[in-house]
Amino acid sequence: MARKSTRNNKLLFNSKDITSPKVYSILVNLVNEDREDLAEEVLKVDYLLQYASTCIKQKDNSEARETLEKAWTRIENIKSQGFEVEHLEHLYSGVEGKCRK
Question: Could you tell me if 39 and 11 are in contact, meaning their C-beta atoms sit under 8 angstroms apart?
Answer without folding.
Answer: yes
